[in-house]
Structure formats: structure tokens, C-alpha cells
Amino acid sequence: MTRIANRPPEALVRIVTDSWTEPFWSAAKEERLTCAQCGNCHRFRMPPTPFCPHCRSQEIDWPTLPGTGTIYSYTVVERAVLPGTEDSIPYVPAVIALDGATPARLISNIVDSSLDSIRIGARVRVIFDVMPDGAAVPRYTVTEESA
Questions:
Q1: How many CA atoms lie within 13 A of 77 on its CB side?
Q2: pTM for the whole thing?
Q3: DSSP one-letter code for 27
Q4: Radius of gyration from C-alpha coordinates of the chain
Q5: Contact at 8 Å (CB) between 74 and 121?
Q6: Whether the Cβ atoms of residue 126 and residue 68 lie closer than 8 Å to each other
Q7: In whole angstroms, how far apart are CA 13 and each of 3, 9, 42, 59, 136?
Q8: What is d(CA 139, CA 28) in angstroms, rounded to the nearest whole number?
């Protein structure tokens, strides 16, 4: 029987924004993936910070990314961490290396993918899940070419 990566329990999702992260979440609501890029030295960073760690500039751009990437790391959660979340098992938290934003990585989840297809180096593409509060969360599926 093929096991599929589920969405994590909604109880684990709590999005808090500030002036540095708001552009990321606003783009997600438009189903666009973006990443903080220094407006001075053009290096990408995630999470966004008030100062570029390389040149200390406060200039920040938010280019739209292609929405693809590679699994850098992951784990498979096989046990419910909260009562009532058993239907979410298994779910897969992952670190995604973002295409077009090297060396930035995004912590997310792999969903709607066979557990057998999930591996370090697998190619993924973004999808957006809309939460009950209207926020959109970027999640990833393994692409067919790497399954």
C-alpha cells in the first residue's frame, strides 16, 4: 500500500507577521513564492532580517521565484503530537533549497506525495494551502520527474 504525505495538523500552523515578513505572506496569498534579497549585494536570505548579514544594508527586494526547489532535509512524523491530529499522520516537515534564491532555504512540508518518492535531492514544486484565517501557506509536492 502506497503511503502519502498528509498536511500537518492545522493546530501546528500559527503565522505571525511583522514588517520584515509581511511581504512573504502577502505574496503567498497571491500564490507567489518570494524570498528576501538584499537590495545592495543581492544575496538571498531566509528568514528576512532587518540587516543583510553580509553587507549590513537595510535595502530589501522581494523577487518572485519559480516555485521549484530541491529537498535539502526532511523527516517523516509518524505519531500524533497533539490529541485529535491522528488523521494527519504521516506528515513530512522539510527544508527546501529554493531555485532562484541560492543559498536560501525554506522550512515547509511535503504533501500529496508518496513517501517512497521523498528523498534528499528530490525535485519539488510549491502549492499554496489556504488556512481558515485566509493566510496561504507554501507547501511542496514531489515532481513527477523525480518520483
A1: 21
A2: 0.92
A3: H
A4: 16
A5: no
A6: yes
A7: 23, 7, 31, 29, 11
A8: 10
CA distances to 60, 80, 100, 138 from 63, in Å: 10, 37, 9, 16
CA 13 to chain centre: 12
Give yes or no for a contact between 128 and 138, defined as CB atoms under 8 angstroms apart. yes
Size (the chain), residues: 147
Strands (E), the chain: 36-38, 44-45, 60-61, 68-74, 92-98, 105-110, 123-130, 136-142
Name every residue whose Cβ is closer than 8 Å to that of residue 10 and which is 6 or more positions away in sequence. Answer: 131, 132
pLDDT along the chain (147 residues), means of 10: 88 85 96 97 94 96 98 95 87 97 96 96 97 93 75
